[in-house]
Each structure stands twice: as structure tokens, then as C-alpha cells.
DNA sequence: TATTGTTATACTCTATAACTATA
DNA sequence: TATAGTTATAGAGTATAACAATA
């Protein structure tokens, strides 16, 4: 009655190391962002997503799709950013239902101010012990996993989402 | 004024992929654990830590060290587990200050009930797209990073913890 | 009818600081 | 004095469900 093989030690080690490394990294990065910019990691990600676009704008739904959030969670976070004057919200002219989030000059400035320290930290914590080639290998493997995870989301172990509310 | 090189595309890709993969995996795993066992991922980790020991016991501090928590956060989580009858707490006979957390039979039973689905999910989401060799390589790289992160925690970007409460 | 987004609400979790007790 | 752990408290974040408006 075991649908899959029970993970050999090598696989277990990979899993544990992944979880521990990402946990430590998230913690450290979140702290740096709060100290240097008063931003949570989530807020930073939203701002960085906006910064990627040349015009610094993006639809709510597009942001949500990238960052896993529930809609309401994104509304909350964007409201925080707006309160801080880092983004603005306007309704789209194309689709009156849609809301376009735009980074303000202050938002982009803060992003620019926080980014160097962020990059430094990632460099020191995550990449320092790897050669350039190893970093590429790591990125390649994780990239494939990401593709797999986002493509195969049947999530077979937790399939019914709308059928069995369980209680 | 750039203390470190600004991350080439390969490095950036590795960083982003790591964060996205771990985020997706955490989310999926947390959901499975809640559905099948009513456990948060943190609670599962505590229980699993106890399960590792032959006698199913461990000191609070030892758990906290492994799982990054603040003391009070661990107290809270262990209290939740105790409330659910999954662990008990007794003061150590060696050191009257210390508290020993022990998994109850129900706790170990729940762990056993939840583990197969957990392993399956990790297998399907994380490991399926990798060959055995690749999993080993991934684990090796991440293991080295973990060692580095836990050994070098000068956390140079956020050093003073007790000096500058900042406000 | 389906989609976009917000709101209300309730809950989980985390962290800080003050505190107790033992070493 | 230093260490182990708890408590009080307060805040941040998240999710669900109900809702309004547009497509």
C-alpha cells in the first residue's frame, strides 16, 4: 500500500536541506528588508515585480498569479504598500473591473535603496559556497523542478478542492 | 560602492528558483498535513523531531535550536500539540529548569498516519523530475549551503541584535 | 454566467518584554 | 549572574465567504 517508493536517504537529504536552506534564507532576507526598508518579503516581492516592468505597472491578478497569494491577501498587501505611498492603484481603461498597481517614484526609490543589501545577503548566504558552475547546476535543477511543480499541479495528494470541504 | 558583485543571471536564476520551489512545496506540504492530520508544518516538524529520537523525547531548547523558533513561539506550538494530546511536558530530573517534551502514543500514531502522504507529496512534487543522481547532486549542493549558513551566521548584513533595537 | 477585486471576519502565528525559577 | 521556559500582549499576515461591479 505504498504508492511511491519511500525516499532513499539521498532524496531525504535533498528535501531536508532544501527546506532548511530556504527557511534560513527567507528569515535572513526578511529581516534585512524590514530593517533597511520596512518591507516584508512579500511586499518586497510585489514591489520587485512592479519594478521588473518598464512602466512599473501590473494588474492585481497578474501579481497574484506570480506570488501565490489569495486575492484578499494581495489586496491587503497592496493596501499596505499604498498606505506607505509606495504604489498607487487605478482602474484599467481596458477592463473596468481590473485594477492596475503602479510603483510610485518613492516605491522605485525604496526598491533601489534596498536591493543592494538584498543582493549582498543572497550572495553571502546562498551563493558564496558555490562555484559559478555549481550555481548554474543548482539553478538548472531547481528550474526544472519549478517547471514541473507549476505544470503538474494536479497535486494528486490533495486533489479535490471544491468537492470535499471536509467538514 | 558595491561590496559584492551584482549577481549574474545564472545566480539570480538559482536564487529565484530556490525561493519559488520552496514556497510552492511548503504550501503544498502544509496543506496536506492540515488535511490529513490537522497539523501545521511547524507542528509536524516538532513531532517529527521527537519521532527521530528512539525515546520520543527532547528538551525545549534543543527543539528551538533546530527549528529557528523564538522561545515563546515554541512554547506556543508545543502547547497546541499538548492540547491535542500529541505530546506531554515534564521537567527534567537532571536540570529542574529544563522541560522535556515527549511524544505520546497518539502523537507517534498521528505521525505515522501522516508520513506516507507527506513522503508521497515530496516525491511527486520535488523529486519526480530528477534522476537519482541529480537528487544526490542537489542534496549535496544544498547541504553545503546549509553548512555554510549555519556556520557563518555572522549575518553581516544584520549584525547587532542586542545593541540597536532601532527604536 | 464568469471574472475582478474588496470587505468583513476570524484565526494562526510570531515576536518582544517582563517575569519566575533553577544553576 | 546566566540560563530555561512561560506569560501577556500586541501586531502581522492569511484565508474564507459574501459582496459589488464589470465583461
CATH topology of chain A: the name is: Arc Repressor Mutant, subunit A
The overall average pLDDT of chain A, rounded, is 88
How much beta of chain A, percentage-wise?
Answer: 5-15%
Given as residue ranges, the uncertain stretches of chain A (5+ residues, pLDDT < 50) are 154-167
**What portion of residues of chain A is helical?**
55-70%
Alpha-carbon distance between the two ends of chain A:
26 Å
- Based on the coordinates given, report the CATH architecture of chain A: Orthogonal Bundle
Return the structural class of chain A: mainly alpha
Could you please describe the fold and organization of this structure?
- Two copies of one chain form a homodimer.
- With 167 residues, chain A is mainly α.
- The first copy, chain A, has helices spanning 9-37, 41-52, 60-67, 71-83, 105-127, 132-151; strands at residues 57-59, 87-91, 99-103.
- A three-stranded antiparallel β-sheet of chain A has the order 1-3-2.
- In chain A, helix 1 packs antiparallel against helix 5 (105-127).
- The longest helix of chain A has 29 residues, at 9-37.
- Chain A is globular.
- Chain A starts with 8 loop residues before the first helix and ends in a 16-residue tail after the last helix.
- Residues 154-167 of chain A have low confidence and may be disordered.
- The interface between A and B is large, with 65 and 65 residues.
- The structure holds a DNA duplex (23 and 23 nucleotides).
